[in-house]
Amino acid sequence: MFNYLKFWLLGCAILSAQPVLAGPMGFNESYMVMGDFNNNWRESFINYAITPRDAFGVSATYMRSDDRSKTRTLEELTYTRLLHRWNMPHAQANLWFMGGVGALQGENKGLNRDHDFDKVMITPGVQFDYETTRVYFMATHRLYRTSNLNHDYSAIRAGFSFYETGYDQTQPWFILETRNMNGLSDKVEITPMLRFINKNFFVEGGVNNFYEPRFNFMYIF
Amino acid sequence: MKKLLTISVLSLALFSQFALAAQTVKATVNGMVCAFCAQGIEKKMRALSQTQDVYVNLKQRIVAVELKDGQNLSFDTVKDLIKDAGYDVTGIEMSEHPVAHIKADMEAKGAK
To answer: Is B109 an 8 Å CB contact of chain A?
Structure first.
């Protein structure tokens, strides 16, 4: 039991958040806290919705290459904009802009000597999602650019809920995600996850195709 | 005299019914598919001073706002709050049933 608790606390402590979960911002005048964590990608993120369509926030991201020779740490100011929303009788679709600008600290380990650098990075991107009470689809592409560096991020998610629940009940989902970060991994990470959505929280966890754990959460207040 | 008594009793009964009837604004909403995302609607409605209780039903796309005794709430206010939360109102009406009754009725019909 203690080990189990320690595992989750460790996960939460080093958590981080690519904003690709449900929507990347909450309702007007709300804060959204997000976290996304695995071995090579950790991000924590908070934003505040100043209008029903605009949110500003801060984000801290740690990225590492598969062979552990490259590490990147990025602290950025972010802006999220709901570009368009389609409200249908039993479905909703959204098109989002997400972008940021921040300080990147990088390290490339070499055979003879390591190379450290600091740069300004910009991270504009778009996300499309479609959701009903039973199915979910999301595609996102975000540029992570600075001079001589390209760590563009792409992800696709799709899933279904196991059964319908009431508004006050927790709903379990199965989600399959594929993602890649250019320049840090040549592989496509595939992660099947279990997601639990309640009106107050959103958590999901799984194990990717490299047998590494993954944990995400969102909370709006 | 008997006629007067009958009228008085009937009037009292009708008045009592009216006085006890709840006033609930019931809106039909498009795009409301996720409890995590729709919580903004509930929070904004509960923040109103006129609100007694709120009920959200995702499957039936219903948001019901029960008002405190003697309080009024315009349809436009409800529509604007739901729109601000990111959803579209496709229908709105006043119900004399309290939220508990609307909830029980929908759950009896199998709509969670």
So the answer is: no
B39 and A199 within 8 Å at the Cβ level: the answer is yes
**B90-95 LR contacts (CB < 8 Å, sep 24+):** B90/A89, B90/B28, B90/B29, B90/B30, B90/B61, B91/B27, B91/B28, B92/B25, B92/B26, B92/B27, B92/B28, B93/B25, B93/B26, B94/B23, B94/B24, B94/B25, B94/B26, B95/B22, B95/B23, B95/B24, B95/B25, B95/B26, B95/B64
Neighboring chain A residues of B107 at a CB cutoff of 8 Å = 166
Using one digit for the tens of pLDDT, what is the confidence trace for A41-88?
999 999 999 999 999 999 999 999 988 899 999 999 999 999 999 999
Measure CB to CB from residue B58 to each of A26, A167, A201 and give the nearest one: A167
The verdict on residue B101 lying in a domain is yes
Range of the domain at A109: 2-220
Residue B13 lies in a domain: no
Query: The domain that contains A16 carries what CATH number?
Result: 2.40.160.20
Nearest by CB to B34, which of A85, A131, A168?
A131
* ipTM of this complex: 0.77
Number of domains composing chain B: 1
